[in-house]
Task: structure prediction
Amino acid sequence: MKRALLVIDVQYEYFTGRMPITYPEGSFENIIKAVDAANLYQIPVILIRHTAIQNDAATFRKGSHNWEIHEDLLKKEHVCIIDKNLPGSFTDTDLENVLKQMSIDTIVIAGYMTQMCCDTTARQAVHLGLSVEFLSDATGTLDIMNYAGKVTAEELHRSILVTQAMRFSRVISTDEWIKDH
Result:
């Protein structure tokens, strides 16, 4: 098994922007812990960055501060940054080729948001024949309310983890994942 850690959309939008992550508490610290462990165990780290395609977008506008990847991550060793415009990290990106070039057969998911880009990327990976490990406390989300209803961050996060564990991923805490190596 050859792994790569994907750190998805850990951008300032989720810290100082319109969508601050609230659950689970400590998710960012666990992301950093996972990256440090990956670096220690020579597991490649790939940073994923979301970019809005509209020039006047309210969030993830290219070149804005909130579009930037958190500086604490940029200081860490990483193979590359993959830019994407849709929730799936494989859609219209070079991610699949990068993983193939490194002979990766298992991806580890960390980042934001649990129910959107993390979930979509995990499902895409399974469809591509990759195994997935989904870090339960190194992914995160926020309360959501729209015309379809409302859901708390905790309920949303938990439901995605349960769904991921049904078919797509091995759902595991950061500490458990580190102990496996």
Q: What stands out?
A: The two ends are 11 Å apart (CA to CA). The CA atoms of residues 105 and 130 lie 5 Å apart.
